[in-house]
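Tutorial handout. Part one gives the primary structure; part two gives the three-dimensional structure as tokens.
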Amino acid sequence: MRTRITLGTMLAAALLTIATPAAQAAGSGDEARPTARSCGELRLTGSLPVPPAGMAVEREVSIGADCTARFGAVRLVRAEKAEGATARAASAVAPSTDGTHRVSGWNEMYDCCNIRMTGLYTASEWTTGGGRVTGASTEATRQWNREPWNAGWSLTAARSDTDCTSDCAVSRTEAHADFGYRGIFDPTGTWYANTHHSYVDLAADGTASCRFDVELRHTFVGWNWRHGCA
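Part two.
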């Protein structure tokens, strides 16, 4: 079961900030960069409320031609129509029984051709009773895009930590994933790197919150960050 939230409350609660503004594209003298349309380092932070059962809330941030982030609107959609792969999987899960709650989150980077480069996903289930979280589990998974000839993105490091799994006031999980790239756009493997962070708080009253960060060593015009929960 889920505590229902009105659309107006959800949109007011959504938060997204730039922790480090995107740098302007390097000058023509920068011989190290693999393309003239590359941008600088960028970190984005997003926070979204958990939507009503059967719904998903999501947001997209794109990198414009001037190498700055452009924020899309927070969208409330049916779970099966959400952009995130996790949301599509979550829509197939049977409805929760009394005292049992579920929430999924996705944190993805896409390139200018709408190809998902890297992604971090969480799937949580927790039970409540007597004003406590009686049991909680959050699974984190990662996905990344490969290119022919054993090239493309790869996972370089990953971890997931939960502070409490039973008899908790709140169960908090943070998941992290570091990705590197070596391929057609950079054969050296030193230019691009995406780091995803996802945070899930599961409360004793059956509510939850989803927060997301992404850090990019270099960005590229047309890249977009998609995150959401369902």
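Part three, for discussion. The longest strand covers residues 116-129. Helices lie at 7-13, 85-90.
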